[in-house]
Amino acid sequence: MVGSQWKVYEQTTLPNGALNFYPAAHATTMMGGGGVEFLMPDALPAPATYVNYLMDNFRANLTESDTITAMIDVAASSSSVIYVGNPDGECPGSSLTLCPGAVRLFIQSNLPASSTPATCVGPGYNKDNYWWSNPIDYPFAPGSSPGEVTLSVPLNPDDWSNLCGEAGSLDPADFDAAIGSIKHVGLSFGSGFFFSNGLGVDGSTGNAIFELISYGL
């Protein structure tokens, strides 16, 4: 767990309305080692900025007998810090603070592009290259988390969904092929119906540091 191995991906809406998605920085190695961390972006100033992913390049050939486990914590400057999920996920209610978002496990595979793309993605993509733990996640709430939180998800097809929101159990063969050719592992941050559309904090209420204490099998 070294900060230089983990990239923090963020998105910002440009003045022309286009979406700029980019690796904003590397995470920072936590004091004393043993984990990495980053400062969550202030989502309310225009243009809004959200964190989408914390990812590491990690090639692995896994099977359904494996389990991915991450230990996380959120160090907020006060108990009044408000988390803000990207509203494009069709968050409930009229206030951004009613949709604080969640973080979940994420893996990306190295399968070839599909010759028959799914309706949810364009040409050149394979929906089975992207998998999120579902339904297991950590929902953000005002302030910090109640100490260290562990997300532990077996690579069971029922516990993961792909880019189109389809459970791995709908096509176990494709799921097994995907986890047998992993190239990135990490976490994703999302809100509403979307798992990686991003979240941040209301900077007027304080700041928060997201900590990934451990990640492994």
CATH architecture type = Sandwich
Strand content: 35-45%
Helix-strand makeup class: mainly beta
Q: Which CATH top level class fits?
A: Mainly Beta
Helix/strand order = EEEEEEEEEEEEHEEE
Q: Unreliable stretches, pLDDT < 50, 5 or more residues? A: none
State the separation between the terminal residues, measured CA to CA: 13 Å
- Number of alpha- plus pi-helical segments: 1
**Got a strand count?**
15
| Main sheet record | 8 strands, antiparallel
Average pLDDT score = 89
CATH-assigned fold name: Jelly Rolls
Q: What is the CA-atom radius of gyration, in angstroms?
A: 17 Å
Shape: globular
Count the domains: 1
**Helix content, binned percent:** under 10%
Features:
single chain; 217 residues; Jelly Rolls; 1 helix
Explain what the structure shows:
The protein has 217 residues and is mostly beta strands. It has a single domain (3-216), classed as Jelly Rolls (Sandwich), CATH 2.60.120. The chain is built from 1 helix and 15 strands; from the N terminus they run ββββββββββββαβββ. The radius of gyration is 17 Å and the shape is globular. The mean pLDDT is 89.
Per-chain topology:
Layout: E1 6-13, E2 19-26, E3 28-29, E4 36-39, E5 49-60, E6 67-76, E7 83-85, E8 102-109, E9 130-133, E10 138-139, E11 149-154, E12 160-162, H1 172-179, E13 182-190, E14 199-201, E15 208-216
Antiparallel strand pairs: 1-2, 1-5, 3-4, 4-15, 5-13, 6-11, 6-15, 7-14, 8-9, 8-10, 8-13, 9-12
